Amino acid sequence: MTAPPPGCPAHAATGLVPLAAATGAPDHREVYRALRAEWGDVARVELEPGVPAWLVMGHREMLTLTRNEQLFSRDARNWRDLREGVVSPDSGLLPMMGWRANVVGADGPEHRRLRAPLDDGVARIDQRRARRQVEALCEELIAEFAARGSADLVGEYATIIPMLALASLFGLDSAGGHELLRALIALFGSADDSQAGNRQFEEILLDTLRERRERPADDLTTAFLDHPNLRNEAEHLQSVVVMISAGNETVTAWIAHTLRLLLCDPRFASRLHGGRLGIDDALDEALWRDPPMNNMPARYALRDTELGGHRIREGDCLILGIAAANDDPLIRPEDELTEPGNRAHLAFSAGPHVCPAQVPARLITRTAVKTVLHRLPGLRLTVPAEEIRWRPSPWTRVPTALPVDFPPAPGAVRHP
């Protein structure tokens, strides 16, 4: 039985570290380093009580896992603990890990068929128009608190921007975007309300699809309905689900972590404000330290094999430990600050399932960070960095709040 890493108690029955406790630890990298010291580059962890998994933390092992579809499948129907009833049908893990008729759960030719609509959808985004829309949204949100001289840059800013930007691309209005946001926060939490959040999320999108079938528009929902690779309503729905769910939570995390980096690391912030680094360097540094998906589900072994010195059995679940892999001593620079322009991280995964929306994700994140820094000079975190807390989730590490103050913007309208 292994000893739990510091600040991250093991579950009493198994002695395994719960994955959600690792992502929620004050310093998640210290937890992953302790796991690496105990297990090596592949560690045994717990997804929920009684449900174990392998956390793949080595950079080389991660590339093996993501590139070898013949050995490691993305299809959750290969998950032995799910087949054998170890994972309950009402488990909060299933909205993130259960099989769906979409690109996430497919391998090989079927994956390529379902991937094409996503790639084509991203390619048709007008980036100049999207950037203007995101800028306008950022300005509108900032105007709500600029005169107040204080804000929560997560709850009032980073959490809202990605969903409303994505909702606009798919033809939803602001109210629909906020509804989707509430459902997604529950879904990504993988807790008791996860399945209810998933149902609500899909119901909203299904209503949108059916409306667009009757009244087509110039948006991504209509583009998915018209795509020849998608054969039925379930595939239309799940393609939209993937694009919005993956894009929202990850971009929220990316915005929040970039702002947190600039607020909490004076050495990095001084290099940015001194002109030695640009906004994109800050975005890349945040991807190294706190990738949007701290851990990503999952791959399932198709036969007995070996990885990282451990025997992996057919049907075992393997989690992509992206944050831990970025911190692998084989690739981690000795200096805390990464070399500017270094994008060798695994923040967007690798292999056939690499993120298809890196360009729009960067566009939204860069615009959000640049706009708030320009509009609110003098931002200052109002709590000690070590007191920042995290939304409960085994997958993402999003601050519950980033409370800041700043000189009230001159001419801004004070809202009650």
Automatic annotation (TrEMBL):
<dbReference type="InterPro" id="IPR017972">
    <property type="entry name" value="Cyt_P450_CS"/>
</dbReference>
<dbReference type="InterPro" id="IPR036396">
    <property type="entry name" value="Cyt_P450_sf"/>
</dbReference>
<comment type="similarity">
    <text>Belongs to the cytochrome P450 family.</text>
</comment>
<dbReference type="GO" id="GO:0016705">
    <property type="term" value="F:oxidoreductase activity, acting on paired donors, with incorporation or reduction of molecular oxygen"/>
</dbReference>
<dbReference type="GO" id="GO:0005506">
    <property type="term" value="F:iron ion binding"/>
</dbReference>
<dbReference type="InterPro" id="IPR002397">
    <property type="entry name" value="Cyt_P450_B"/>
</dbReference>
<dbReference type="GO" id="GO:0004497">
    <property type="term" value="F:monooxygenase activity"/>
</dbReference>
<keyword id="KW-0560">Oxidoreductase</keyword>
<dbReference type="GO" id="GO:0020037">
    <property type="term" value="F:heme binding"/>
</dbReference>
<protein>
    <submittedName>
        <fullName>Cytochrome P450</fullName>
        <ecNumber>1.14.-.-</ecNumber>
    </submittedName>
</protein>
